[in-house]
Amino acid sequence: MSLVIPEDDNRLRHVCADCGTVHYQNPKLVIGTIPWWQADQQVLLCKRAIEPRRGYWTLPAGFMENNETTEEAAQRETTEEAGARVELLGLFALLNVPHVHQVHLFYRARLLDLDFAAGTESLECRLFRESEIPWQDLAFPTVSHTLQRFFADLGALTEGQAVPLYTLDIRKRLQV
């Protein structure tokens, strides 16, 4: 395997020296939800049981698997991390994180009930009002940006108004 620019390409690629097969390395998709309990104006967060950022709070999210749609990934990750049943209400945020080769997608989601519990990748799951969110203890900038925009748009969302897809490029590395 060598790193070269193949014919008819303009980027360095991993290419097999024996057969010439190009092994593309592309960004990973991280898919999650913003699980919302409207009755008490609360969002469900999970405290991470795994690295990176063990012990920090996050929205339920994770890597998309092969053979699933983004909606299926969002539902699966919410079930795996929080044991929560949700109804997806539409794509809310798309955040590019090029320095770690990831794209994060978050769906708005309505919690169907309050029967949730931490999965194997979570230490704890809990509902938070905006004023209770542990902003300094959020695991990733994608989570804090998504939550800030969600609460900024909440008035419009609860009145049934459409809000534009939130997009952001995060180029600054997380300082730990």
**Largest sheet at a glance?**
8 strands, mixed
User: Which percent range describes the beta-strand content?
Assistant: 35-45%
Shape label? elongated
| Topology as a string of helices (H) and strands (E) | EEEEEEEHEEEHE
Unreliable parts: none
Distance linking N and C termini? 34 Å
* Number of helical segments with 4 or more residues: 2
Beta-strand segment tally:
11
Radius of gyration: 18 Å
Share of helix, binned: 10-25%
Instruction: State the secondary-structure class.
Output: alpha+beta
What is the residue-mean pLDDT, rounded to a whole number? Answer: 95
Can you walk through the features of this model?
This protein is α+β, with helices and mostly antiparallel strands and 176 residues long. 18% of the residues lie in helices and 36% in strands. It contains 2 helices and 11 strands. It has helices at residues 70-82, 141-158, and strands spanning 2-4, 13-15, 22-23, 28-37, 42-48, 57-58, 61-63, 86-97, 102-111, 122-128, 166-169. The strands form 2 sheets. Strands 4, 5, 6, 7, 8, 9, 10 and 11 form an 8-stranded mixed sheet that branches. A 3-stranded antiparallel sheet has the order 1-2-3, with no helix packed on it. The two termini are 34 Å apart. The mean pLDDT is 95.
Helix-strand blueprint:
Blueprint: E1 2-4, E2 13-15, E3 22-23, E4 28-37, E5 42-48, E6 57-58, E7 61-63, H1 70-82, E8 86-97, E9 102-111, E10 122-128, H2 141-158, E11 166-169
Parallel strand pairs: 4-9, 8-11
Antiparallel strand pairs: 1-2, 2-3, 4-5, 4-7, 5-6, 5-10, 8-9
